[in-house]
Give the backbone structure.
Amino acid sequence: MNHSRRAAIKTTGALATLVSLGVITQSQAQAAVDRAAFDLKTLDDALKAVGGKPATSDQVTVVSPDIAENGAVVPVGATSKLPNTTEIFLIVEKNPMPLSCGFTIPAGTVAEVQTRLKMGQSTNVIAVVKADGKLYSATKETKVTLGGCGG
Amino acid sequence: MADPMRIRAALSGEETTVRVLMSHPMEPGTRKDASGNTIPAHFIRDVEATHNGKTVLKAQFSGSVSQNPFLSFKFKGGAKGDKIVVKWSDNKGDSRTDEAAIA
């Protein structure tokens, strides 16, 4: 299990190097984001995998309850009013693997998605949005009464 | 083969709202069973929704999406009776495709 994780991390590193060298462009390198990004353990790493530090924007909204009674099923959504929004990522900060899901928004699709996520404990939920190649984010805190990641 | 998805697509004004409920255990691979063994990961990785053959949404999921994942999104350009096809594939190579007509 550890071996595959190491391999996954190595792959991410190699890919990042290729991007930085300009061998492959960012858009080619990512479907939305490399699969290995979903296995990263920290918020910083997850943000790096998504493309860097996003700027806070009031045009991005993250919809998540103030209090979630059941952490196994928390309705979470994100909306972006920014033009040319191409990607939306949902990050649950304190989950073992923070990056939860990513959406690719083609032209014609409204930048508004909703899903249900698991949360292990009270945490910040971060929506990261890519618009015109730049990253923007919004954060909302959700208090979880009963964790949903087992243990 | 997993159970069928429930797909609802409703046209309102210019926008079509698509709601999908997939049937899947979404096991993150971090949980342990009663005897302390790790339960192997089993979750949907990729979801793709198409309208008349054109992709309207792609999603990448991880194990932290809830069991029986729910997904809702909107797109423009749909018409009543158009076909919405949703396909998912999981980390064990299983996949499922279902379709619905816009109402």
